[in-house]
Structures are given as C-alpha cells and as structure tokens.
Design brief:
By secondary structure, the protein is an all-alpha fold. It has nine helices and no strands. It has two domains: about 100 residues, no CATH class; about 90 residues.
Length: about 220
C-alpha cells in the first residue's frame, strides 16, 4: 500500500470507531439515568442515616444534563472499546507476520479488559487510558522503536512523565491520591517492560532456532 492508501485505510478505521462510539453512547443515554440513581442511592442512604436531608441538588440548571451526557459518553466508550480495538487490529495486522500476529493478538485484545478496569465506577476515562500503558510499551518494544533495556535505563525520565500525567488525571487534589495513581502507573510501566522483555527474548530464541535449523 502507498502512503495515501494507508491514510485512507486509517481514516476508514477512525470513522468506524467513531460511529461505534456514537451508537453506543446514544444507546447509553437511556441507561445513564439508572446509573446515576445507582451511584446516588448509597449517598442518600448515608445522609438519611445521619439525620441529613437525602435530597441531592444541582448547583446549575445544566448540571444534570451535563452529567447524563458525560456518563453516556463514558459508557459508550466502554461498550464500543471491543470495536475500537478490532479496528486498530485490522489496521495493524496486515503489516505483521503470521507468528507476530499470534503473539500480539492476545495482548492487544487485553486492552479491552485493561481499559474497563481503568474506568471501573466511571471515575475518569483518563484513568482508563492510563491502564493502556503496558500495551503501548509492548507495541513500542515489539516493533523495535525502543527496547526494554532503554526503558529501564531511562526510568528517571519515565518517573518524571508519570508524575506529570498523574497530576493531570488524578480525580482529587490531595497528594495521597496522586501518589497512589503514580504507584499504579509505575507498576503498569514495569509490567509492560517485563512482558516486552519476555516476548522479545522468546522471539530471539525462535529466530536462533530457525537459523540453526536452516544451517543444518
């Protein structure tokens, strides 16, 4: 494929992903009020148990509408994530060899689980994207853009970047929560490095075995 053919294919995959997200978000619009009720019920029960008025209020006329829109988008992203991952896979797969496809398939599709795990209780979609860090590291290493050794050697820069990202995506302003987010991101970072190291080592062993067999 030429460069422009790649761009056309990429545009097709992006459009398909956006359509899937839009359709799922539209369907989630009818589910969003029920989700709000489920989230609000424990708060109301706690307020009532302590003798407070359990009626929740909104500080602006458009707050409830904005909440439903955001919630619909969040749910739509979760529901459409398998389709989005599939579109990414369809764009990347033609460039992979058969062995590479089998090695990458399971790891790429695990992004759905990681994404959903990151936005459980719908805290922030940004946190869901943070949980994609191991997948990003794996792909960068697998396609030899960087190496696990390079990532370990430059851990200090990774810590700096993680600190900045954690400060942005942390849902509350307190330092403790930010440190917890940083800890999770660092764990995901080293998880991605470890998985990449194992995958590359196995690939090198297979290549060496194939070379030895051909030489014999």
């Amino acid at each position: 494929m030429t460069f422009f053919e790649h761009l056309i294919e990429l545009r097709k995959r992006i459009i398909n992903s956006l359509i899937a997200i839009a359709v799922c978000a539209a369907g989630a619009w009818f589910l969003a009020p029920k989700v709000v009720d489920v989230i609000a019920k424990p708060i109301q029960v706690a307020l009532k148990a302590h003798g407070y008025d359990s009626q929740l209020i909104y500080t602006a006329p458009t707050d409830y509408l904005g909440l439903l829109i955001k919630l619909s988008i969040y749910i739509g992203l979760v529901l459409a994530s398998p389709v989005v991952v599939y579109q990414v896979w369809m764009f990347v797969a033609p460039a992979l060899y058969k062995r590479e496809r089998s090695a990458v398939t399971g790891f790429v599709f695990s992004t759905v689980i990681l994404f959903v795990g990151g936005i459980v209780l719908l805290v922030l979609v940004a946190l869901g994207l943070v949980f994609e860090l191991p997948v990003l590291i794996f792909l960068l290493c697998y396609f030899e853009i960087v190496t696990p050794k390079f990532l370990v050697k430059n851990t200090k820069y990774a810590v700096l970047a993680i600190t900045v990202v954690a400060a942005i995506v942390t849902p509350t302003p307190d330092a403790l929560t930010m440190l917890l987010v940083m800890g999770v991101m660092l764990a995901l970072y080293f998880l991605g490095v470890g998985i990449s190291w194992l995958a590359l080592r196995n690939r090198a062993k297979r290549a060496a075995a194939t070379t030895a067999a051909q030489g014999a």
